[in-house]
Amino acid sequence: MKNTQHPAKGVVKKTPGKGLNLVNSLNGTALGLFIIAVLYYTVGINSGFLFKLQELDLFSTTPEFFSDTISKIGGLSVYAGTFLTQFFYYPWLGSIIYLLLLLLVVYLVAKAFNLTGKKLPLAFIPSLALVLCTTELGYLIYIQKLHGIAFVCILGVLIILAGWFLIRRMKGFVQQTCCLLLYLLAAYPVCGAYALLGGLLMLLHVLKQAIAEKELKHWMPVIVAAAGLYLIPFLYYQAVYHQIYFNNLFCANLPNFKVAGHERLLWLPYVLIAVFFILAALTGKKEHNVMVRTSFFSQVWPAVVFLAGLFVLGHFTYHDKNFNTELSMLSASEQGNWNNVLKLARADQDEPTRLIVMSTKLALVKLGIAADNEFKYKNGNKPYHSPREILPIEIAGPFFYYQYGKENYCYKWCMEQMVEYGMNAYVMKYFVLSCLLNGETKLAQKYNDVLASTLFYKSWAKAHQRYIDHPEAIAKAPEFAGILPLTNYTNILEGDQGILENFIRDSFANLTSGPPSVLELSMLSNLELKNAAGFMPKFAYYTSTNKRIPVHFQEAAILFLYLEHKVDINQLPVDKNMLAKFQLLLSYLQQYHNYSEDAAKVVYANEFGDTYWYYYLFANTKKPKDTAETKAN
Amino acid sequence: MNKYSLLIFCSLLVTLCSCKHLPGHCKDATDTLSLYPDYKEVCIPYNIAPLNFRINNEATSYLTSIRSKNGKTLIISGKDVEISLKDWKSLLAANKGEDLIVQVYAKQNVFWTKYPAFTDHIAPEMIDNYVTYRYIQPVYTTYEDMSINQRNLENFDVKVLYDNRLLSTEKEGQCVNCHSFQNYNKTGNMQFHVRGRMGGTVIIENNQIKKVDPKVEGMYANAVYPSWHPTMNLIAYSTNKTGQNFHTKDLQKIEVLDDKSDLVLYNVEKNEVSPIETTDGWLETYPYWSPDGKSLYYSCARYAPKLDNIEKDVILNYKNIKYNILRKSFDPATLTFGPSDTVVSAASIGKSATLPRVSPDGNYLLFSMGDFGNFHIWHKSSDLYLMDLHTGTYKNLAAVNSPDVESYHSWSSNGRWIIFTSRRDDGGYARLYIAYFDKNGEAHKPFVLPQKKPVFYKRSFKSFNIPEFTVKPVTASCHELVKAIRKEPVKATAKQ
């Protein structure tokens, strides 16, 4: 009998033509835009961020690292994620790997849910969301506990897709149910919550068929599979893992964002991924050899959704100039490129954060020009643009303590950070450095061994191994030359209360002895504290031992002596132009005494903005403490 | 040849090829044998897990022979000497009281060289099967990842008794500490504290787990350092107002200081607390029952703050706070204590003695002594000392001490082994060391707790704290403990 079957209503055979060309060009454009977007948001504008991301992570080749990582739920994908994250050491290399994996996700999503032809742009949505999972982080990378975060989510999605491919190959409810249970048993320890989403999609597939079959017996496997979805994590909790809080059982391998407040927005890409897959699982159909006669809109709507996805990526990607400036400054500082730090400080148009101010000061100190220049640079206290409270000590505590010769505190904060956020290359480096300067070579060896077992920090480890083998070389090494004199102080027992800048400033301000570089730092610290009583005795000593008196010291001496009313400042052995400028300041004080502080700030800025006097009049010396408080806002 | 014969032939061939033979003639090595960990010339219990080690000397191949008077010689190849548990146990069991001779051969290029053999001694006395310790990064103020673990000393099995991450989240961190057993867990009774989230004291008694709060009205701090009476359901606690501060330069890095501390007695059955010693101007801490349960030893320091701000005062004067070891008699019938007498007058010689531990036979007192303070786990001056309780004389246990920290120590139930923590390995991380204590009251060279992988300690970033021997394992599972910890603690009452 001749087959008389016709296409369903509204469905007609169609030969490739204008519509197909449109689809092809849309798909090609989507692919191009996707590649450009990924590269732009990674190596394009986030190189420093990605470098920091890998520095706050660590992949070691030792068996202990492997066993320790996989002892947690989702450990295997974290292991693989940290392996891949290390390639961000060269941001372009990491970005290419990242892009290739995302393209693999696109390909598999398209294949899994038959998103071909005009629907192909939809297959980019999960990958765009995955990019956002990384680019939205900002300051949260400093307090993120999920290692390999950029790749863990990609690997998780790949395992979700593996589950989907598997279930579709299974015939019959029993086979499908067994497959689902086995999948959960195998995948949950590998990627945690992602396996549960994969299991949910598989369950939906079984459920759809059960509904279609309309027989009661087909619901039994659905119930078994649903129970498995809940019970298998519980089973692992009871029998295998002793390192997870029960409430976190169903969100293992997800970042530690809060669900309330500003942080809830960070869940957006994860929600998008889940919603996308659930919708795709519910609506996905086998491809027909027919094409639907469609309107222009129906041909382009997937492309529109794709563009919306791009918009969401751009909109929710973390942007903050100060964050980027801090990253660049810290990176330049670590390389000892202090001039570049100052260049970045000068280029920064925004109100600086305390970390930028601290980095600038450190660069000036290291270049030996702080006493002439510190108050010429912008002061500020802009809150960190972070949805969660973050302290400078969490961002760069070990670095600053190391640079200022507070090696015990550097070590302490490395330890605190390792305990709280796990092992990473950054803390390992400062463990090594602080131990070297403390003369604890055995401990330095322990940490250096970890770096030596990595792919990209082994050369750093090798370079520092010679100081472990020959500690006497430390005293002659240029790397430590600027720090060793700062370690010349008497031990005291105290605590920093987590307030980095205050602690460093106070400890130098209160010093009573030390080499010339420490004396200068101590005088500067007293200036920052507006502490004339702490400054003047040191100034007297300084003038007796130095021919040239730096600008800010002269400014401070004039001011403090004027305020004491004991000395005729005109008799002071200081620059006459400076004295004239001070007289001008006094006239300003008379002229604008009834101005508000904000108005006066503007008036004084032009003439005195680069002087200590301006700092004395307008800077809030309680800033470091305020910094800790404002972050809570 | 049929296929079965071929299979047997191949198997034999493989077996023969894999048999290890020691090199015949070989020169003596010119360098000194270096092992990690150092297991040379130590005295070991016959039931200890294999002492696996790494040979540090450079070579292309290694062979190690381990032999004794009886049984077969063990030959292990490789830089990492990982000994078969079964073979090791057989060898030691057959040679109680004998020597164990270990010889290392190293091949450089084509020639084998031989290092001088070293001899370990297998003591005829066994060690208790289990040691329970807290496994923790040497943390300062944050705590995220710590557990109380139980190690089977006869093999490498470790059971996590409780991991604080089971109930701990982010800032709502939880600290677990101060596990203590009654009489080496022979009764199955133990306790530990949970601080922070869902805090309280977990007590396992008669196979029941309960959570209590022994802090009663009038106590300024929680019950802290415990000692469970050897036969009665009584726990002596110190209650300490403790703070910690950080050295800016001193390598000891951290100072844990009490500015107030007293002793209390907790009656487990009645859930009742009574004072033991609460004299003003004195700091009492680290109580420890004598094995007969008729005396309570503790550390005590004179401290009279001069400033109104006691916390500041203690920071300024911490080096002047020196603890002696005192003892109080105890009447089990009336549950009353007698007056104190000084056992170790450390302050008189400018030292500070803490953590008194009486040997199970009641003959010796083992304690830590450092320059000042009571938290000797951070004091490099801290060494182990031994007092003969019959003569009242004490001596530095030089055989077990090192230039670094030696502190928390415990006796095995037969009194032949002591276990203690030391930071001698790298200066930063506390490890457990075991030393033989012979019938003449002499301690022998200690060895670090053996691990399956010789490089374990090099790659471990956690410290071992508070080692306590037990003869029986803890039977409660960590999930049973979680269940108990979730509950509100039962508040103790003050004894009227």
N- to C-terminal distance of chain A: 78 Å
What sort of overall outline of chain A do the alpha carbons produce when their principal axes are compared? elongated
**Largest beta-sheet details of chain B:** 7 strands, mixed
Largest interface: A-B, 44 and 45 residues
Describe this protein's structure.
- Chain A has helices at residues 18-44, 47-55, 63-70, 75-85, 91-112, 125-135, 149-169, 173-191, 193-213, 219-239, 268-283, 296-316, 321-334, 338-347, 354-367, 370-373, 392-403, 407-421, 425-438, 441-452, 458-469, 478-481, 500-509, 516-528, 532-545, 551-564, 576-591, 597-608, 612-618, 623-630; strands spanning 11-12, 291-292, 493-494.
- Chain A is an all-alpha fold and 633 residues long.
- Chain A has a two-stranded antiparallel ribbon.
- In chain A, helix 5 (91-112) packs antiparallel against helix 6 (125-135) and helix 9 packs antiparallel against helix 10.
- The longest helix of chain A is centred in the N-terminal third of the chain and has 27 residues, at 18-44.
- The radius of gyration of chain A is 31 Å and the shape is elongated.
- Residues 1-16, 287-291 and 623-633 of chain A have low confidence and may be disordered.
- Chain B contains 5 helices and 36 strands.
- In chain B, strand 24 and strand 25 form a beta hairpin.
- Chain B is 9% helix and 44% strand.
- Chain A binds chain B through residues 62-65, 238, 242-248, 256, 406-409, 411-412, 415-416, 418-420, 423, 438-440, 442-443, 445-446, 449-450, 487, 489-496, 507, and chain B through 137-145, 147, 160, 163, 165-170, 244-251, 253-255, 315, 318, 425-429, 453, 456, 458-461, 478-479, 482.
